[in-house]
Amino acid sequence: MAPTVNVLLVDDDEVDVQGLRRAFSKSKIANPIMVARDGFEALEILRSQNGKTKLPKPHLILLDLNMPRMNGIELLEALRADEDLRSALVFMVSTSKAEEDKARAYGHHVAGYIVKQDPANTFMQAVSLLEHYWKIVEFPE
Question: Looking at domain 6-136, what is its CATH homologous superfamily?
Answer without folding.
Answer: Response regulator (3.40.50.2300)
